[in-house]
Specification:
Structural class: alpha/beta
Number of domains: 1
Number of strands: 7
Order of helices and strands: HHHEHEHHEEHEHHEE
Helix content: 40-55%
CATH topology: Rossmann fold
Distance between the termini: 74 Å
Oligomer: single chain
Length: 227
């Protein structure tokens, strides 16, 4: 009886933690996003090496988590603005706290929103990033098209992940992603997704020893002959 009760408690705790990873709340989720800031920092640095960030860029971070990526990009886009969205209230709260001074200075703006319905005008951003979040998007193709909508012509999207199908860490992290209900895409899957969504100049970068993946693509430049 006691063993059965213990198993139930462990199972419930695992389910609760899985939900917190996907959508941190304002309480226990704060610890989760703190861990994410720590564990994803090197992955983020590696991913950002594959994109150009100019001082005046307008940037959007989709699934901003604990706000560390926003802080890093704001340090590069010193004359621009960095926006962050996350659908989890705990992530929004943590990200706002992390970037409080930048928010007061008007250089950062963070709000709760879904990738499927971004609260921005078309052609708004030079760069859109998504670090460790694409796994959980509700409709990958339509959500990539929604990002395309808010990119400026010629603007870039960068999707960065610490595991991917057939990557070196897939055997370890793949089952965990399945438990969390996350999508598991491989290199060819990403290329096809980017292409179907309307991106051009698609590039794939892999870090084999760590199992990391970064995929970038551009919104086609405006046709100067179009009316």
């Amino acid at each position: 009886m006691l063993r059965a009760l213990l198993l139930i408690v462990v199972a419930l705790a695992a389910v609760y933690l899985a939900r917190q990873v996907r959508k941190p709340d304002n309480f226990a989720g704060r610890f989760i996003v703190w861990l994410m800031n720590k564990s994803h920092s090197r992955l983020t640095d590696w991913g950002l090496q594959h994109v150009r960030i100019e001082k005046e860029f307008a940037i959007l971070d989709v699934g901003c988590g604990g706000g560390r990526t926003i802080e890093k990009m704001a340090a590069l886009a010193t004359d621009g603005t960095v926006f962050g969205i996350d659908y989890a209230p705990g992530s929004v709260a943590a990200s706002c706290a992390k970037n409080a001074e930048l928010i007061r200075a008007g250089r950062v703006s963070i709000q709760q929103a879904m990738v499927s319905n971004l609260p921005f005008e078309p052609d708004a951003f030079d760069l859109v990033t998504a670090i460790e979040t694409q796994y959980y998007w509700p409709n990958l193709l339509e959500d990539m098209r929604e990002i395309l909508r808010v990119l400026k012509p010629g603007g870039t999207v960068a999707i960065v992940a610490e595991t991917y199908r057939k990557g070196s860490r897939d055997t370890v992290l793949g089952p965990a992603m399945k438990m969390l209900g996350g999508a598991s895409l491989g290199v060819n899957d990403e290329r096809e997704l980017f292409s179907k969504a309307g991106y051009v100049d698609i590039s794939v970068f892999e870090e084999p020893s760590k199992g990391w993946l970064c995929v970038t693509g551009r919104k086609p430049a405006a046709n100067p002959n179009s009316n």
